[in-house]
Design brief:
heterodimer, A: 119 residues, alpha/beta, Udp-n-acetylmuramoylalanyl-d-glutamate--2,6- Diaminopimelate Ligase, Chain: A, domain 1, 5-stranded mixed β-sheet, 5 helices, 35% helix, B: 144 residues, alpha+beta, 5-stranded antiparallel β-sheet, 5 strands, 26% strand, globular, binds adenosine-5'-triphosphate, binds magnesium ion
Amino acid sequence: MTIRELVTLLDARVLCGEDKLDQDVNNAFSSDLMSDVLAFVTDKTVLITGLTNIHVMRTAEMLDIHCIVYARGKIPSDELLEEADELDIVVLATAHNCYTTCGLMYEAGIRSKNVRTGA
Amino acid sequence: MESTILKNTYEINAGEFQTAGDVSANIKRKLKQIGIGGTVLRRIAVASYEAELNLIIHSHGGKLTLEMTPSSIILTSADVGPGIPDLSKAMQEGYSTASEEARDLGFGAGMGLPNMKRNADGFSIESEVGKGTTIQMRFDVKDA
Ligand SMILES: Nc1ncnc2c1ncn2[C@@H]1O[C@H](COP(=O)(O)OP(=O)(O)OP(=O)(O)O)[C@@H](O)[C@H]1O
Ligand SMILES: [Mg+2]
């Protein structure tokens, strides 16, 4: 599925990256804890989160996260969106909570491919 | 000993949450420019970011050094204290003494040190209470 189809699936608003919606979505991860995002994400991923501080963008930049979905109606600041724009990261917002957002994506066939290697 | 092609040192100040990640973003861009990419670039970026965050959250301040040889990238984090009393505990997933402030920002799960070790091809840590902590990480790269 593409990010454009994800927008429809989640009844989401595009906050940033309107011109980048044709990218594929084939991996996802959800957490509000950036420590866990850093420890578990191993591949190009959509991140579903509710955390709106600027560190989310930094974390996304390190991991090549190309799309962030803000769940439960959270809207990040303009500062964060400017940063996302600079980093070519698509930002979506949905009124669904994290659980429902993940459920809808799972039902649509998207799986988490972030496999942890041994410590 | 292999010759060093490139060496950059970055100062990291304690408590500077607002600019956390700037140094690692810089390192990532620099490495990308010289042709490093894919999985190894991501591993370096993540390890660098974890080290940078630890310097900001836990240390009294320190330095992150990036070195490159023909076959590897070496990242060194060296700080001026407070040191880690029990290294084996600190290396366990879930062990954290992070402040409330760090936790509010989405950190402090006790994942950083093990994550650095997992991402690096070589990892060593030394620490002395009252003196400081030094972490060295090696990442093997094919001819860049
Ligand atoms: N440079 C440092 N100086 C002093 N103590 C440190 C340093 N780095 C880590 N520690 C100690 O080791 C613990 C574990 O570090 P680690 O990076 O694994 O987790 P964390 O930073 O607490 O949380 P996370 O990395 O998940 O955000 C820290 O909570 C802290 O007590
Ligand atoms: Mg840490």
